[in-house]
Amino acid sequence: MTATVDSSSRTLTPVEQDDGDAPYISLVIPCYNEEESVDELVTEVIAVLDDNKLDGEVVLVDDGSSDRTWEKLSGWAEKDARLKLVRFRRNFGQTAAMVAGLDHARGEIIVPLDADLQNDPKSIPNLLAKIDEGYDVVSGWRKARQDTFVSRRLPSMIANAIISKVSGVKLHDYGCTLKAYRREVLDPVNLYGEMHRFIPVYASWSGAKVTEVVVNHRARKYGTSKYGITRTFKVVLDLLVVKFLGTWGTKPIYFFGGLGFLLFGGAVMSAAYTLYEKYVHNVWAHRNPFLIITVFLGLLGMQSLFLGLLAEIGIRTYHESQARPIYMVRERTNVTRRRRGENLS
Predict the structure, then answer these.
(1) Closest to 8 in 3D by CA, of 66, 93, 105
(2) Global pTM?
(3) What is the pLDDT of residues 279-331, one digit of tens each?
(4) Architecture of domain 25-248
(5) Which of 23, 125, 184, 318 has its CA 20 to 30 A from that of 47?
């Protein structure tokens, strides 16, 4: 398959080809300046496929590396047709690389993992065992994580606790790339920014069965981490977007309208207190700061209501222009799938 990518969102357009039967599993590995680890990485993932007799492919996405990553990957791909390579024109980020890998993967089960050798490919069979039990998403848990505590593990613990609390999906390790997904739970998910870590949340909200298993985590062998403590702040901001879209994504007027009524309520209370001060304590309104608060809250409430109406128009345009459904169907029995507006016959 060949494709073009023009942004960090899911704008990759695969060109359909007859690739034969789809494999059972697709390993998706974003790579960025990983020339030192490429040889060991490919050797390990191929060994896992061979040793466990897995019908699989390995989709490696070079996210605009400036070293010899692509050259080394190309050498391996010439030897083993199971290696599928995608190369970006420049660095678009991990989420874009993940999306490109998902778009090119053909397997029934998708397993992403990092290219820095910290994710142990030998943990993959444990993930697949849980998939066989009937789960749709199996998240890896780096229980014995081999990273520095202050700069990596502590911020991750805080972020995981916040995400679990806000989303309602209890996982110990959202940041672990090593996960297993059934393809059908990934197909409806569009990823932007740094949203790849929230795929289990999206899947759970769509009705998927989510669990986690402990996976082996290894100390970084080559180079240095490309992420710092500032990534935690990005996670919090992304979480706000996820929470808003998940809770009010199809009814934003409830959020903005509720906020507007709350502000109007504050304005009414402030106005009542202003009148009380005027007629009981003889405090002139123009000398009472609560008059300003009344006007301020009233204007904010009105703006919030109008913003909610604009958001309703925008979200309806978004869903209708893309024919995007507001529900997800697990299975059908004796029902012919059709497009809206068409008659069943």
Answers:
(1) 93
(2) 0.71
(3) 888 888 777 888 899 999 999 999 998 998 888 888 777 666 766 555 555 55
(4) Alpha-Beta Complex (3.90)
(5) 184
